[in-house]
Amino acid sequence: MSDEFAGSGAPLPHLEPFEENFYHCSACNYCVEMTWEEWGIDGVCPTLRHHSPGQGYSGKGYIAAARAWYEAAPPDLPSLIERAFTCTACGNCEEVCPIGMRPRQIAVALRSEIIARGLEPDWAAQRAAAFAAQNLPACEPQLTPDQIAIICSPAQPHSLAEGTAAASLLGACGNVRLVEMPLHDLAELSALGYAAQLTEPLARLCNRLAEMGTRQIVLVDADGLSLLAASAGELDVQSALSLLLASLRSGRLVLTPRPDNPPPAEVGYLDSCHLTKKTHGLASLRLAEQARALLDVLGIGVIGASGAAARFAICCGAAGGMPASKPQAARSMANARLADLGHQGARLVITASPLCSDHLASDGGEGVGVLGLYTFLARHFQPRAGRTAS
Amino acid sequence: MRPNSWVDELAGLVRTETLFRDGVDLLSFTRDASVVSPGIPQVAVRPSTPEEIGAVLAFAQSRDVPVYARGAGSMYAGGAIPSAGGIVLDLTALDRVIEIDEARGIVIVEAAVTFGTLLKVLNARGLTIGVVPMTGASGTIGGAVSSHGLGTGSPKFQSLGDEVAGLEVVLADGSIVRTGSAASRGAGFFQRYCIGADLTGLFIGANSAFGAITKIALWLHRAPAHFETLCVGFPDAVGGTRFLIELQGREMTRNVWYGAVYDSPAIKGKMASLRPDVVQASLPALCVGLDLRGDRDEVARDRATIIAMAQAQGGDTFDIYDEIFFRKLRRDYTFWYAFAGYCTLSRSALLMTSLPTDTVPAFFEKVADIRARHAQFVWGGGIVLCRRGVHGALIGFYDEAKQWQEMQNVLTGVRRELLDLGAVPYKSGQLWADTASSYPEYQNLLGRLKGAIDPARIMGRGNLGT
After folding, report:
1. Each residue's pLDDT tens digit, B84-96
2. Which of A4, A387, B31, B125 has the fewest CB atoms in 10 Å of its CB?
3. Chain B interface test: which of A20, A21, A23, A42 (most B C-beta within 10 Å)
4. Which residues of chain A are within 8 Å of residue B400 when distances are taken between CB atoms?
5. From CA A335, how far away is CA A341, in angstroms rounded?
6. Is residue B269 predicted with pLDDT exceeding 70?
7. What is d(CA A344, CA A368) in angstroms, rounded to the nearest whole number?
8. Could you say which of B27, B117, B346 has the minimum Cβ distance to residue A64?
9. Are B135 and A19 within 8 A, CB to CB?
10. Do B46 and B90 meet the contact criterion of CB atoms below 8 Å apart?
11. Are A55 and B117 inside 8 Å of each other by CB?
């Protein structure tokens, strides 16, 4: 066993906030496997289902491992590292927990403790290094106060495509400017356990946003909202989804079906976990409902779980580093979600998360097409300013 | 021989992906929901068929290695805790609903099907089962039968064990046996009490002492068309108890799928938090909550009769309690974990007993006495109705970081006090193992049966009767 892990009493700053959880988990097993039809729950953990039934990968396993480390030392170091970094960090385990335990956050805290000792897997370290090498933008284009900055991530192909599409839609009724910033990368690295290392880069990003000259910030990747919530000062930050829906409802923006490429009557819709599960801090914004409302406004039927069933849906495998740590399992998770929607009749699945659409579309997708929400809209609708647009 | 050489040998007998031996995976098997101390297995095996289980048990028998069968591990009696180490037999791969036979009125499931899954499957056909343990969303049917989990359908159906029509069990020597009518080759499950002694009962509540349950046949029931709740309150426990005795004696439990009795501290606590405007002095000393399901007209007639019976004993309807708590509990929170005391953010030590109905006042007095004498813990007491008799639950909430050992010590005395009251252990596991001197002849018989079926005594070492 590594010296970094030996014995009790060593500081564990990332695990300490969860001490109460270690002693309160009542072993109900909800975070491992459960079905509750009335609540729309049918299974819980994607890793147990698609990678291994070894319970060290479960919410219960993370709590037990964290407690063991907290009280003495982790029982098996290589095993702990492998299991801590084999988690989608989707948060379904927290969603179903009847007493508010935080196994997903404990898994991330385990990662942070491992990172603090320099023992994380190579793929995670390489991702952190790649982010650091990006040399966060020293100078962003100067915007005018009335311009809306639409932020997308330069390192994510779908994010860039989605940002471009969102800008083309919203640009019809407002003065928008596409800005490439790795905000989404920050959010993903945070879920990998690097939050402590991101404080300074996040502050620099927020400073850049503030210095750009506009106060209206629109995120294509909504997971950045939780990062900016506490750091963005007086900036007006919202998701592209919210702005698009509000613009349509207010009449500022009109989307007309393209005669040469009309939209399908219905599409499958897949919610990303960070929008629906409360552990990510965005569920209260009800962005998942807004996405459905947006499609409803445009007369497009939605196939797929909604409400409670969407809240408890099993992750598509895009997040938490799963495509890097266990690509086969991540692919299996994606195929399961696509197959489920396909069985319900969906030929095309759309999602408001570039991370999810990137992952879902990466390998053909079980005969079901996958598109980002904004790309889908731009492809099938012609935008124009409405009568109330300035 | 190296200490773990048998693990290497076992690894050669089972499929690689079904063997778990690293410390992190094994941590999840060290405990259940009870106050009992953990045990650390050397290995866990996750077989998929009775034959694979048989091979593991035969191996364990030949090497004198302890085996602990396990489902969700969510019970409160310590029956699944590997106190003597050895092998955890993780049965969660046995997760198929095998057959729904409406003509025979039977559903056959593998051991690790959860109640939540089975209810979903049956609900689609307008069917249900009689008894659903309160851990049902995650609790496995095999685990509940093996530990005799308490059911929420008790007033109408008595207990989970009474709803079992037959079992398939892999015995401790690795052989496979079916009980009830299915013991006769080709007959299948349709009758429990046949071919002489009821050997089905031997395995119910035995915590796998004689073998691992792999299939369970349960009686099917039509899902009731109508649901409503009723709470009646009484100014004293004596009147309330007379009502309970009459309710059972007149068979007015026929449409009561769940019934619970709440004492004054429970009532006052709920009312203080949810309706602080109600004067506490006006509250009943005892409340009986009833979950009525069935034909609408028949339920309406039963309701009127039950209210009249309560009024004859000095009680009356207690609608406000029904509105703020009981109806919500039964309608929205089928499963106990999601609503009850577990929400106090504390570990709980649960002692589940069976009692004659006329001891309800004495049970609540004992709860009050324990509460007063052991005030360092938070105590709750509750009664669940059966068709005959009641189950009395004593729950002690403790801070596991500081009070674990202390709670275990206190429970040693409390268990004895409950036995002196006339209570008997309902779910035994390891939690009640130290009370065997109260039933020496029965314990002796269990021991002899154990020796005959499991001569190396590998199964569930440390549990009652083993």
Report:
1. 999 999 999 999 9
2. A387
3. A23
4. 23-24
5. 10
6. yes
7. 11
8. B27
9. no
10. yes
11. no
Kindly list the residues of chain A whose beta carbon comes within 8 Å of any beta carbon in chain B: 19-20, 22-24, 26-30, 32-38, 41-42, 52-56, 58, 60-61, 64-65, 68, 74-76, 79-80, 83, 98-100
> Which of B90, B335, B399 has the CB atom closest to A36's CB atom?
B335
Q: How many residues does chain A have?
A: 390
Q: How is residue A347 written in tokens? A: 């030929």
Q: Is residue B379 in some structural domain?
A: yes
Instruction: Quick: pLDDT tens for A308-320.
Output: 888 999 999 999 9
Report the distance separating Cα A29 and Cα A47, nearest Å: 15
Name which of A200-204, B44-48, B176-180, B299-303 the model is least confident about: A200-204
- Mutation target among A29, A42, A52, A71 for the B interface, most CBs of B within 10 A: A29
- B313 to chain A nearest CA, in Å? 37
Tokens representing A193? 């356990």
Task: Return mean pLDDT, chain A.
Answer: 90
Question: Would you say the CATH fold of A148-250 matches that of A16-120?
Answer: no
Q: What is the pLDDT at residue A140?
A: 63
| Position B409 in a domain | yes
- Domain coordinates of chain A in residue numbers? 16-120, 148-250, 254-380
Q: Residue A366: its pLDDT value, please?
A: 63
From the CA of A152, how many Å to the nearest CA of chain B? Answer: 39
What value does the mean pLDDT take over residues B299-314?
98
Give a yes or no: residue B457 inside a domain. no
pLDDT at A139 over 60: no
Quickly list DSSP for A159-227: HHHHHHHHHHHHTTTS-EEEEE-THHHHHHHIIIIIGGGSHHHHHHHHHHHHHTS-SEEEESSTTHHHH
The residue-averaged pLDDT of A162-166 equals 96
Smallest CA–CA distance, residue A215 to chain B, in Å, is 42
Do B337 and A26 count as a contact with CB atoms less than 8 A apart? yes
**Number of Cβ pairs closer than 8 Å across A and B?**
124
- In terms of DSSP bridges, do strands B127-129 and B19-20 run parallel, antiparallel, or are they unpaired? unpaired
Average pLDDT estimate for B353-367: 96
The answer to the question of residue B449 being in a domain is no
Do both B310 and B371 map to the same domain? no
B322 and B355 both lie in a single domain: no
Judged against a pLDDT cut of 70, whether residue B452 lies above it is answered with yes
**Confidence check: pLDDT of B3 > 80:** no
Residue A104 has pLDDT above 90, yes or no: yes
Please indicate whether, in this complex, the C-beta atoms of A79 and B120 are within 8 angstroms of each other: no
> Do B85 and B101 lie in a common domain?
no
Q: What is the CATH number of the domain that holds B277?
A: 3.30.70.3450
- Provide the CATH number for the domain around residue B55: 3.30.43.10
- Cα A56 to Cα A76: distance, rounded to the nearest angstrom: 11
Contact B92 A98 (CB under 8 A): no
Domain count, chain B: 4
Cβ within 8 Å, pair A19-B401: yes
Structure confidence at residue B238 (pLDDT): 95
Q: Scanning every residue of chain B, which has its alpha carbon at the shortest distance from the alpha carbon of A52?
A: B17
Element (H, E) at B166: strand B164-171
Q: A254-380 in CATH: which number?
A: 3.40.50.1860
Domain end: B301, B323, B338, which one? B338
Largest Cα span, chain B: 73
Give whole-number Cα distances, B5 to B9, B42, B245, B459, in Å.
6, 11, 59, 20
Structure pTM? 0.94
Q: Which residue of B has its CA nearest to A55?
A: B25
> What CATH number labels A16-120?
1.10.1060.10
Instruction: Identify the domain containing residue B328 by its residue range.
Output: 226-338
Domain A148-250, CATH class in plain words: alpha beta
